[in-house]
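Working notes for the structural subgroup meeting. M.R. asked for a predicted model of this chain before we commit to crystallization trials. I am recording the input and output together here so anyone reviewing the notebook later can reproduce the run.

Input as submitted:
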Amino acid sequence: MKLAIGCDEAACDLKNAVKQHLLAQGHEVADFGTHDGEPVLYPDIGIAVAQAIVQGRHERGVLLRGTGIGMAIAANKVAGIRAAQAHDTYSAERASRSNDAQIITLGSRVIGVELAKAIVDRFLASRFDGGSSALKVDAITGFERSQAAAAGRGQGA
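Returned structure, recorded in C-alpha cell form:
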C-alpha cells in the first residue's frame, strides 16, 4: 500500500519506528517529515499529507504528534479528508470501518511504540463497511460540499 507519514518534533522517534515497521511489511512509505527534533509547524505537515491523499498520490496516512489531536484537526481542514485520532486498536478499526477515515493520528506522549504499530496495523487492515455508516459519511461529505459551494458564492466563512 502507498502510505504517507508525517510528524512534528514531539513524535519523530515514534514516527521513525512506525515507518520502519511499515517498510518491513512491504508498504511504500513517503515521509513528509519532520526528520529531526527541530520545531516545525505541524499543520504544514498534516495538511501536506492530507493533500497527497486527496490528490491520489497515497492511499492512506499516519500522522503523529504529542497527542495526535492537532494533526487530526489540521488534516481535517483539507476537503475530502477524514482523519481520526486513535489510541487503541478498536478505535483505529472503527475509524476505517465506520467513518471511512483515510488518516489515523497518534500521540507519542500517550502511547508506546508497540501499541502504535498495532494501531496502525489494525487501521490498515480495516475497510469501510458502508451500510448504515455510509449514510452518515455521505451526510458529512454533503455538508462539506455545501460549505465549499457557499464559499464559492461569497457566502462562506
